[in-house]
């Protein structure tokens, strides 16, 4: 049996690496039960209904770095990415476009650390994908690339971008695919909005795409940026 200790685990809410501030982070994924019991049934019967998603985070209050982003994020759709480990490239991650529906600006008792709470629901669907890139860069950079697989007809590729620090003047990030791991003939599939500051974005591209290999290509000028990109197909 494999077990894990929760430590050194980044996760991103919009432009925040919420793992730097949160003491607990949880998500709940399920389905509503739709009653379909008929007269000839002996037991109550249900069919699987609409899928549901919710998340919550308890964080330490930081009125310099995080308070404004959390406060302004209420009633706003932002990408949310949960890392399952240290946030390394090609690591499994859960990703969604989430709606932050509540924030407790401050909580705590005398002598305790001041805390906040954030919670929300889904705008899109929960996707089990990978961390494709999670680092800082100051020049043109390509991620190593991952064999994420093709996007069949009826499927889509989902991409979450989280830019958490910016000292440069321009950052452009493109998600590319190819039919080989060497990326000798890459095709640009998803283009994030060019930015000069911290930001986040959730983009979706429908299939069919036969390429199996995926990477992130970024062009940077004027300084450095710290960002993470998660990709998933469903």
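^ structure tokens above, recovered residues below v
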């Amino acid at each position: 049996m494999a077990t894990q200790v929760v430590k050194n685990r980044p996760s991103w809410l919009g432009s925040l690496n919420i793992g730097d501030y949160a003491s607990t982070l949880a998500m709940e994924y399920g389905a509503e039960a739709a009653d379909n019991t008929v007269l000839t049934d002996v037991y109550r019967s249900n069919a699987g209904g609409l899928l549901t998603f919710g998340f919550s985070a308890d964080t330490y209050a930081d009125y310099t770095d995080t308070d404004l982003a959390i406060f302004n994020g209420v009633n706003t759709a932002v990408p949310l990415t949960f890392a399952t480990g240290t946030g390394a490239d090609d690591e499994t991650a859960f990703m969604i476009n989430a709606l932050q529906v509540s924030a407790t600006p401050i909580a705590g008792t005398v002598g305790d650390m001041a805390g906040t709470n954030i919670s929300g629901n889904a705008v899109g669907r929960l996707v089990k994908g990978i961390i494709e890139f999670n680092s800082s860069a100051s020049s043109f950079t390509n991620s190593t690339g991952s064999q994420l697989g093709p996007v069949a007809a009826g499927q889509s590729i989902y991409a979450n971008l989280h830019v958490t620090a910016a000292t440069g003047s321009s950052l452009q990030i493109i998600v590319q695919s190819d039919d080989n791991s060497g990326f000798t003939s890459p095709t640009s599939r998803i283009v994030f909005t060019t930015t000069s500051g911290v930001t986040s974005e959730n983009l979706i591209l429908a299939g069919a795409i036969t390429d199996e290999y995926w990477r992130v290509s970024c062009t940077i000028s004027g300084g450095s940026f710290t960002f993470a990109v998660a990709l998933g197909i469903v």
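The mean pLDDT is 92.
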